UniProtKB/TrEMBL annotation:
Family matches, as InterPro entries: Thioredoxin-like_sf (IPR036249), Thioredoxin_dom-contain_11 (IPR052792), Thioredoxin_domain (IPR013766), TXNDC11_thioredoxin (IPR058777)
Domain Thioredoxin residues, every copy: 56-178
PANTHER family assigned to the protein according to its UniProt record, in alphabetical order: THIOREDOXIN DOMAIN-CONTAINING PROTEIN 11
Name of the molecule in the record: TXD11 protein
Domain of life: Eukaryota
Native source species: Atlantisia rogersi
Length: 680
């Protein structure tokens, strides 16, 4: 019966006695609560049992690699069996994968290709590290897949973090197989030192024992460098011939030499640092010379570009690169430009061909120490005097119209002789010491009028082992300005020595380190205009290389043409100034082209045109109320316009911009078109 027919109110009094009875007996309430709780637990248990029944167990893993593949596939994650296989192999590659991972599936073919070429020398093992019942999943905790580990006997793991490309993986595996290059002749030493990458050389005598003292330590340090630097930028070599080792000043077995093109090469200080593999690797990584660096983004979120571009203006060069090829002509040209650009001393040490080694005669320098009055060669050489400074002495009388101009040089052919390869470099502290010693004896260089250049060798005031050479002559005051304006050659047919040294004939004086182009006539033919430019400008560039076969998408984002067949591209990005410039893609990427590109950027008022990103999909319609502005039309429409311009900046993803459009259109209709241009 419903409440409308009057039965509802009559039923209420019937429930009141029961409620009053339960209130008088609280044990009834407790019993009811317990019964309801038990019923709820039973219902929950039944529900959970039904949910567990509908959960399907994971399928058993299957082979990830083909059964005919040279890669051993442990698809059930048998990591213990993989370690058992590693005991009988010298070089082992582990490929940890997840069968559902797209990157693992893409890298599978690349690893299989490398295994088909190196399976007779390297053991390739693939381990499924996703199967939850396998030991690999229980013992390894990887944050990404795939992961490649290499072992060289008991040393490892060496993780490979480079591109998942067959050529790069094979190159890295070969570096692990042979971490040392054995150098037994001068020609091999020349090839090793000519490479643009920094090199570490160790000299060991193999006559006394199969493994000389320190050899295994040096061998392990080469593996440590691959472990810390997956790009493999430092090459390690072993010299086995005593005479070849003498070319780079290595005399004792176990000595280690770090070769650098521009800065002074170093010898490992075993008297200061312990002779361990970790210390040798750390010493080489901290003191290596990085004139040009490879950038290889891994494809995920990374701060690689941001960290490098924050260092300063960057020249990014995209070239097609195959690491397995032995000859790279384009890379050699770029390397030569980089060496010239960083060669602040303009010495022969920065030449990649190392002409000093090509001489077939006897060594140019001996180990004896002659006196200060040594006969000079017939012609002054930049390589022999890399550090010079021009000094203008005060006038000897106030009415005199002449000046004594001296070329003060650090004479590195006197005293302790440098080695043929170890060409000393300019040190401003040495120049300062030379100037102090020179000014203490400046009265001896005064000449009233002389048509000859007088040269003198004198000892350093600070060190008895340092010698300096000063060549002085008298010139008129207007001649000093004429030198700087007309760039004439400062020469006389005769140069004589004063009473400080022996007399001899020479052709040229030694120019200032920054002004040698003014005095040496053949410098333009032998060198380039960008020589030492990195030290003569505040807009120093950092040089980077990228493989266009892998990272061409970055070149397209920076302004490269998508339809180009030859994937060569160069751009300068200045993050601080928020500008970047693009090298004309109609020009071939050659050394001379890069030199002009660098020079035009380095001058104060650069003639390079700033590159701006344009939207080719925008179609301009003159009948519109609002003018669409693009990169190409911004200057004419906004900057050069005689009208007042109201400009709206918007983005396609901006939701507020879309809601503002109709208001902006109404505003454009209200403003007088003769005085205002409304654009976006």
């Amino acid at each position: 019966m419903s409440l409308c027919d009057g039965s509802g109110p009559a039923a209420v009094p019937r429930l009141r006695p029961r409620a009053a009875q339960m209130a008088r007996r609280p044990e009834l309430l407790c019993g009811a609560a317990i019964v309801l709780g038990c019923a709820f637990l039973v219902a929950l248990k039944v529900t959970c049992s039904r949910a567990k029944d509908v959960t399907m167990p994971a399928k058993l893993p299957v082979n990830f690699f083909s059964t005919r593949s040279p890669v051993i596939d442990l698809f059930r994650g048998q990591l213990d069996y993989a370690d058992y296989l590693r005991q009988d192999s010298e070089i082992v590659l582990y490929f940890f994968y997840a069968p559902w991972c797209g990157q693992s599936i893409a890298a599978r073919e690349e690893v299989e290709h490398v295994a088909s070429r190196l399976s007779d020398q390297v053991l390739f093992v693939a381990v499924n590290c996703w199967w939850n019942q396998g030991k690999c999943r229980k013992q390894k905790h990887f944050f990404y897949f795939p992961v490649i580990h290499l072992y060289h006997r008991s040393f490892g793991p060496i993780e490979y973090k480079g591109p998942m490309s067959a050529v790069y993986i094979e190159k890295f595996v070969r570096r692990v197989m042979t971490p040392l290059l054995y150098i037994s002749s001068r020609s091999k030493l020349l090839d090793f030192l000519s490479n643009y990458e920094p090199g570490v050389l160790g000299y060991f005598e193999f006559n006394a024992s199969p493994q000389p003292p320190g050899y295994l330590t040096f061998f392990t340090s080469a593996l440590h460098s691959l472990k810390k630097d997956y790009l493999g930028t430092i090459r390690f070599g072993v010299i086995t011939d005593k005479h070849v080792a003498g070319e780079i000043s290595l005399v004792h077995s176990g000595s280690i030499y770090l070769h650098r093109h521009v800065n002074t090469s170093l010898i490992y200080p075993d008297d200061i640092m312990n002779y361990t593999a970790e210390n040798i690797c750390k010493w080489a990584l901290e003191n290596r010379e990085m004139l040009i660096r490879w950038l290889r983004p891994h494809g995920g979120k990374s701060l690689l570009f941001n960290n490098e571009l924050k260092k300063g203006p960057a020249l990014l060069i995209f070239i097609p690169y195959n690491p397995l090829e032995e000859i790279h002509p384009l890379l050699d040209e770029i390397t030569k430009v980089a060496l010239e650009y960083h060669n602040c001393n303009k010495s022969q040490a920065a030449e990649p061909d190392l002409q000093l080694f090509r001489d077939t005669g006897s060594p140019a320098f001996d180990s004896s120490v002659p006196d200060a009055h040594r006969k000079l060669p017939e012609t002054f050489s930049i390589t022999k005097y890399p550090c010079c400074n021009t000094v203008v002495l005060p006038q000897w009388h106030s009415i005199s119209r002449t000046h004594n101009v001296c070329e003060l040089c650090i004479n590195q052919t006197l005293g302790v002789k440098p080695n043929k390869v170890h060409v000393p470099h300019c040190n401003f502290l040495e120049i300062e010491a030379a100037l102090d010693s020179f000014y203490l004896q400046e009265h001896t260089f005064f000449q009233v009028i002389s048509s000859t250049i007088e040269c003198s060798n004198f000892l350093s005031f600070y060190s008895p082992f340092s010698y300096y050479t000063a060549c002085c002559r008298t010139v008129n005051r207007h001649f000093l300005s004429f030198i700087s304006s007309e760039k004439i050659i400062f020469q006389t047919p005769k140069v004589v020595f004063s009473s400080h040294g022996k007399k001899d004939n020479t052709q040229y004086s030694i120019p200032h380190i920054e002004d040698r182009n003014c005095f040496i006539p053949d410098l333009h033919s032998s060198g380039t205009n960008i020589t030492g430019l990195s030290c003569r400008t505040n807009k120093t560039l950092n040089l980077y290389l990228l493989d266009s076969n892998l990272f061409w998408i970055y070149a397209e984002r920076l302004g490269a043409t998508r339809s180009t067949h030859l994937k060569e591209f160069a751009t300068i990005v200045d993050l601080k100034e928020e500008v970047h410039y693009v090298l004309d893609q109609n020009q071939s990427l050659l050394g001379s082209t890069l030199e002009n590109f660098i020079k035009n950027f380095s001058i104060h008022y650069s003639p390079l045109k700033r590159h701006l990103v344009d939207d080719p999909s925008v179609h301009l319609d003159k009948q519109r109320v609002i003018t669409e502005v693009t990169t190409n039309t911004f200057y004419d429409t906004v900057v050069l316009s005689e009208k007042n311009v109201l400009l709206l900046y918007y983005a396609q993803w901006c939701g507020f911009c879309a809601s503002l459009n109709h208001i902006f259109i109404q505003l454009a209709r209200l403003l007088p078109p003769d005085n205002f241009t409304v654009a976006r």
